[in-house]
Design brief:
The structure is a single chain. By secondary structure, the chain is of the alpha+beta class. It has a single domain, classed as Phenylalanyl-tRNA Synthetase, Chain B, domain 1 (2-Layer Sandwich), CATH 3.30.56.110. Helices cover 25% and strands 7% of the residues. It is globular, with a radius of gyration of 14 Å.
Length: 160
């Protein structure tokens, strides 16, 4: 099963490159088939230093499409920021080659108000541009702190 998932990931890589955003293709979740889905391990922590909480099941988000902003080595974009997307952010990321509004394949397309696991680097880029969407600190994976400061995340914290 893991081999099949790895093959699927390799087949999806050209699609990510065609999107113009191979690092931050939030709509690409093809590696989910190679991993066990469900609750994260208790050792998976949020940036708030709590057990990682669910981000969204509707739409189903996360690199593994299990609703959690978990990651692994195959996730080069580090889709670890649980955000409530805004129109301003959707417009911003589309201008950078990653259209999250349009449905394609199993990806439903996002609308303002949807919660989604975003690429940490893209969120940081949006933050610097003043267009970062609000984040759920308890559903944002602690690995995000490698790319974004806690203070930046906290300044855009959304109520749970």
């Amino acid at each position: 099963m893991r081999l099949l998932g790895a093959i699927i990931c390799l087949l999806l890589a050209p699609q990510a490159a065609q999107s113009g955003d191979s690092q931050c293709g939030e709509a690409q979740g093809g590696c989910a088939d190679s991993e066990q889905v469900g609750s994260p391990a208790p050792s998976e922590r949020s940036v708030a230093d709590t057990e990682l909480q669910l981000c969204s099941l509707s739409p189903r988000t996360g690199w593994f499409r299990d609703g959690y902003c978990r990651t692994n080595a195959a996730d080069t974009g580090r889709h670890t920021v649980c955000a409530q997307v805004t129109q301003q952010f959707l417009t911003f990321t589309a201008a950078r080659g990653n259209d999250l509004s349009s449905p394609r394949g199993r990806f439903p397309g996002l609308k303002p108000g949807d919660r989604w696991c975003l690429c940490a680097v893209r969120w940081a880029e949006a933050y610097k541009a003043g267009k970062a969407p609000p984040v759920d600190l308890e559903a944002t994976h602690q690995r995000t702190l490698r790319y974004v400061s806690y203070q930046a995340l906290q300044s855009r914290s959304a109520a749970r």
